[in-house]
Amino acid sequence: MDRVAVVTGASRGIGAATALVLAERGFRVVVNYHSSAGQADEVVGAARAAGGEAVAIRADVTSPDDVRALFEHTEQRWGRVDVLVHNALIPYDVTSFADLSWEQLGGKLDRELHAAYMVTKAVVPGMLSRNYGRLVFLTTVLSRRPRQGMITVGTAKAALDQFVRYVALELAPHGITANLVSPATVADTAASALLKAEELRRIGASNPMGRNVRPDEIAKTVAFLASEDSGFITGHCVEINGGLAMD
């Protein structure tokens, strides 16, 4: 296989696990990172040790210049992008509505959608020219099932979910799919660091499977959606939550 995948926010957590699984399955993988260069290099080393091809490229996905450079560098190295996994965490505040400012809510909405818009705009023209592409976006159950304090991320991800459905509808005739992956609370990610240890334990205990989801479990689902086998699946949100929310 010579498919090329770009994984944003891939220096740790879900992104790192996804980059490694894709590399193990024969993808050439761009490990995008913002500030964790050492961790990104470790992911690249692990991917290569597993027999895959990978390279780390720094870019802030909320910066137009950085996004442009990320994909120019990728195309110069490997000629194209077949798969985009947009996983990068856009920071947010944990707060009640009573204490919420418009800067907190509007800022999160703007950064979340702007980043998704820019990375998608960067890869779709090439995918259209080849009539092939896989777009996978990480979302959260909080976009559909509110939890106290999570109004900024839940609202922003709800907007992302609908953005992806519109993209999926428009690109479907061209062999390009766009899907969402929605994990429950993850055991080891930057987002979980915003929660206290006791809260993480409580959330895991409330899951029907009795624990929080692992990054590698999410990565394997993303890898399926990134594969040719998922070609007739588009516009969907795949829940990875151990039965916590059943639709």
UniProtKB/TrEMBL annotation:
GO terms for molecular function: oxidoreductase activity. InterPro entries: NAD(P)-bd_dom_sf, SDR_fam. It holds the Pfam family adh_short_C2. Keywords: Oxidoreductase. Transmembrane segments: none annotated. Belongs to the short-chain dehydrogenases/reductases (SDR) family. SUPFAM superfamilies: NAD(P)-binding Rossmann-fold domains. This is Short-chain dehydrogenase.
